[in-house]
Amino acid sequence: MSDFDETARRLTVKLVYYGPALSGKTTNLMRLHDLLQPEARGELMTLETQGDRTLFFDLLPLGFRAPSGLLVKLKLFTVPGQVAHDGTRKAVLSRADGVVFVADSQRTQGVNNAEAFQNLADNAARVGLDFDRLPLAVQFNKRDLPEIYSEAEIRERWSATPWPLFLASALNGDGVRETFLALLARVYADLDRLYALRTDHGLDEPAFIRAAADAGPRRQAC
Ligand SMILES: Nc1nc2c(ncn2[C@@H]2O[C@H](COP(=O)(O)OP(=O)(O)OP(=O)(O)O)[C@@H](O)[C@H]2O)c(=O)[nH]1
Ligand SMILES: [Mg+2]
């Protein structure tokens, strides 16, 4: 749930990268961090991880000012994908304004993807999010690996769903920005309805997306 502080003229928005263990959620944030403006980067803070495994979450904060002076802060989180960390996933998902579901394209990971997607729907309900209205983008990552589901198979399987679908190889950055931009577009519609971004703050959808995608980020892993 976005947080609008009228006195401080600040809007805080929470975006969450969700998905099965090792699908590439943290790598998405790392590549976004690389792609966004280097001169505005803050410290990279890494707390507890175990090998590639996120134990709590990663955080990449972005910020920019609307023409009205409103400070828009975007907080990008990753959840830990390992099944055991469900409590943390729920906490991170709580009050999310939008979600990227990062699936693993490898054929061995079909069941894990499905379970993680169900877990997202279940946890959304548990934390009071309306899953049917939640801005969501779906990314199939690791396209560079052998033994992956074909694009046709993936598109066929997801054809009845309303969410935009992206193929990515987060390791080398392919598809990372496109996925993020699609989520921003979906989130903008809700924010504009709630806070009249276009009429009261001079921020239409293209300007919002441009500003957010160019904002100088800082990444913190916890
Ligand atoms: N080949 C390939 N490897 C990838 C890609 N994206 C991520 N990886 C690798 O997959 C491993 C797991 O990536 P992470 O980003 O840590 O995965 P995660 O989803 O954050 O995992 P958890 O924190 O355990 O939930 C790492 O070794 C990454 O380098 C990709 O597009 N291609
Ligand atoms: Mg991770």
From TrEMBL:
Gene3D superfamilies: P-loop containing nucleotide triphosphate hydrolases. GO terms for molecular function: GTP binding; GTPase activity. Keywords: GTP-binding, Nucleotide-binding. The keyword Nucleotide-binding applies. Transmembrane segments: none annotated. It holds the Pfam family Arf. InterPro entries: Gliding_Motility_GTPase (IPR052705), P-loop_NTPase (IPR027417), Small_GTPase_ARF/SAR (IPR006689). Signal peptide: none annotated. PANTHER family: ATP/GTP-BINDING PROTEIN-RELATED, GLIDING MOTILITY PROTEIN MGLA. This is GTPase. The lineage of its organism: Bacteria, Pseudomonadati, Pseudomonadota, Candidatus Muproteobacteria.
